[in-house]
Amino acid sequence: MPTTAMSIRGMLANPDAGLFFRFQFNPHEISTDKSVKYDSLSPAGWDRPILQYVNNGESTIEFDVMADSTPASGSANAVRAYGVLDVIAVLETFKLPQSFSVSSAIKNGVSLQTLVPNRTMRRFTQPPDCYFVYGLKWAKCKLVSAPVRQGLFNRALIPQRMFTKIKLVVIEDGWMADVADAERRVLAVLGSSITTGLSTIKSGV
Fold first, then answer.
1. CATH code for the domain in which residue 125 is found
2. 131 and 165 both lie in a single domain
3. What is the Cα–Cα distance from 86 to 69, expressed in whole angstroms?
4. Residues contacting 4, CB < 8 A, separation 6+
5. C-alpha span between 60 and 81 (Å, rounded)
6. Which of 25, 29, 27, 9 is nearest to 74 (CA)?
7. pLDDT per residue as tens digits for the range 156-179
8. Are residues 102 and 178 in the same domain?
9. Residue ranges of the chain with pLDDT lower than 70?
10. Quick one: pLDDT at residue 146?
């Protein structure tokens, strides 16, 4: 269903890198995961193994999104000469070494070298952080995968639609992670409450 003007749209963003990927159509499903690693120990003389906690692995967020520049999509930016190539470029830039910084440009000015850096400047430079914003869920991440399928090419062979499955790895440090931990604990308490828990509501108690 096309996104209306009143809809709240999620996004991937990094203001300092000048990158904003707004979801034209909000994903219907979002998958989250947090891996935990245990070692199974089998001491001599014991009839059962002992699980020993090792560490927590990475947190991931995955979802499918699409972009459509045709009039039928209901997009305000429909029928663009470059189709969805700009949307694809934003995703690709999130996976490449960060070569532009708004704060640095304000401080030092903008030059051609700043906008189009040479390969030497990109050595040992990591891709920009990616802020996932979706309703009450905010997370600082790295975009690790976004394979793109392009389709509906026009006469100039410019794609009018794109589909991708995005995978983010959450950066679990800093104030955003602290806020997320606090929010999770509060919601866990609410969800476990006898009076407000979802299981209680479903059971009709």
1. 2.40.30
2. yes
3. 11
4. 74
5. 35
6. 25
7. 899 999 999 999 999 888 777 788
8. no
9. 1-7, 72-79, 99-124, 194-205
10. 92
Q: Where are the beta strands (DSSP E) in the chain?
A: 11-14, 19-22, 30-41, 50-68, 130-134, 137-145, 148-153, 159-170
164's tokens: 């991708």
What is residue 198's predicted lDDT score, i.e. its pLDDT? 56
Distance CA 62, CA 33 (A): 9
Same domain as 194, residue 166: no
Q: Which domain holds residue 177?
A: 173-205
For residue 2, the tally of other CB atoms under 10 A from its CB is 11
| Domains identified in the chain, total number | 2
**The pLDDT value given to residue 63:** 94
Distance CA 150, CA 67 (A): 10
SS3 labels along 59-112: EEEEEEEEEECCHHHCCCCCCCCCCCHHHHHHHHHHCCCCCCCHHHHHHHCCCH
Q: Is residue 191 part of a domain?
A: yes
Tell me if 187 is assigned to some domain: yes
- CA of 141: how far to CAs of 62, 65, 78, 85, 193, in Å? 12, 17, 30, 23, 31
**130 vs 62: CA distance, rounded Å:** 13
141 in the same domain as 81 = yes
